[in-house]
Amino acid sequence: AYRTSYPLPGVASDAYDIQNRARALDNTMYVLAPNPASYTGADVQRVDFFGGHSTITDYTGRTIGHLDHGGVATFVTATIDLPALRRQRTTAAWTNWAKDLRTELFATLYERPIYPANLYADRPPYNHAEYREHVTEPQIDLMRARGILR
Q: What is the pLDDT of residues 35-44, one digit of tens each?
């Protein structure tokens, strides 16, 4: 899976690394998280923050490639062992959790869409304030109305 960029201070708090490792382990997959994290804040804050901490995490949650720096052209490499991944998915007794999912518990959440499909198919992307107003807040309101959030 590809993890999109994440700005500072998010990567400095370890949450970025924890999320990458947990998603790899939970889903028995590799997570590729290149993170130059170019981010421009509000109009009064015309600075780019480069978070760095690009990582490649294997299906066991182990970081197999890591680079601390951001803000410049860099790259991270690691060996992606697809035969080992496939073996893990088909033979692991307790570390392949997909087989143990109680998917019926998520039926209410997934029975109808929440995030708008093709959001930018016919328009340019929202800025941060517009995104909050037109996407984030309506999504939260929708989840409350459906009883998903209280």
A: 765 555 555 5
pTM value is 0.72
Dig out the tokens for 50 from the structure. 């480069």
Task: Tell me how far apart the alpha carbons of residues 127 and 104 are, in angstroms, rounded to a whole number.
Answer: 36
The half-sphere exposure of 85 on its side-chain side, counting CA atoms within 13 A, is 16
State the Cα–Cα distance between residues 92 and 103, nearest whole angstrom.
20
Cβ(64)–Cβ(35) under 8 Å?
no
Cα distance between residue 69 and residue 44, in whole Å: 26
Q: Determine the residue type at 1.
A: A
Distance CA 131, CA 126 (A): 5
- Return the SS3 of 73: coil
